[in-house]
UniProtKB/TrEMBL annotation:
This is Nitrate ABC transporter ATP-binding protein. The keyword Oxidoreductase does not apply. It comes from the Bacteria. InterPro entries: AAA+_ATPase, ABC_transporter-like_ATP-bd, ABC_transporter-like_CS, ABC_transporter_ATP-bind, NO3_transporter_ATP-bd-like, P-loop_NTPase.
Amino acid sequence: MHTSLTTKFIEIQGVEQTFKTAKGLFPALQGINLTVAKGEFVALIGHSGCGKSTLLNLIAGLTTPTSGALLCANKEIKGPGPERAVVFQNHSLLPWLTCFDNVHLAVERVFGKTESKAQLAARTDAALALVGLAHAAQKRPGEISGGMKQRVGIARALSMQPQVLLMDEPFGALDALTRARLQDELLEIVARTQSTVVMVTHDVDEAVLLSNKIVMMTNGPAATIGEVLAVDLPRPRNRVALAEDPRYVHCRKAVIDFLYTRQGHVEKAA
Ligand SMILES: Nc1ncnc2c1ncn2[C@@H]1O[C@H](COP(=O)(O)OP(=O)(O)OP(=O)(O)O)[C@@H](O)[C@H]1O
């Protein structure tokens, strides 16, 4: 159960992102102002191409904004850092390494200079155990299912003991049942580790089930934050019980209204 969600952790101030393309400048994001508190779970939702990944990449420090500022723990975000671990949709594991070695690589990068070999191995084991994959430690990505690969990706991110977990549609490529199971696991892990999470998703139910706050983005070009919805559902959350909870239904409807009534989907060429 989150106690206080008041400590400002990530601050995004007047951020604008313009890309140079063959056809000229493309304004992807403008006027983005957002605060994420420590221990908060924030979902970014919006139609395809509105700029969710662009915003997540800015927080990850993989790109720099055209203007505006991004801060993490009062420090300007100037590049990627182990305190902001990223989980991508396609797990991005190295296929020739075992699950253990894939996670160990990240552990070594962050703690290699300060900890013994035994400590690094123990961290790796603990991260795999956290996602229920201790038994698959010696398997290679090609020998495990899509859901398991995604769990290794989450273990790798968590193994760095990041202050914030940035997830870009982490369950987007999975079937509905595996996706539901991983959402439930993520809920438990986040409760146990008190992680701060920013997650990009297309899935309204996923956003409501997992988050404290849903950031709804307008369609691009020059996309911005249209509305922020507070999800005041108590934790722990149970998907079956929530399905009929009027507060859940209300949140779900508010997001659907925003996406389909006020931001009617416009397909546009990328
Ligand atoms: N490096 C880039 N150069 C040029 N345009 C880009 C670049 N990255 C993103 N864009 C454009 O910026 C817009 C936002 O892209 P982004 O990938 O952030 O959207 P998204 O909301 O994450 O989409 P999806 O939900 O489909 O993954 C799109 O129009 C995209 O074509």
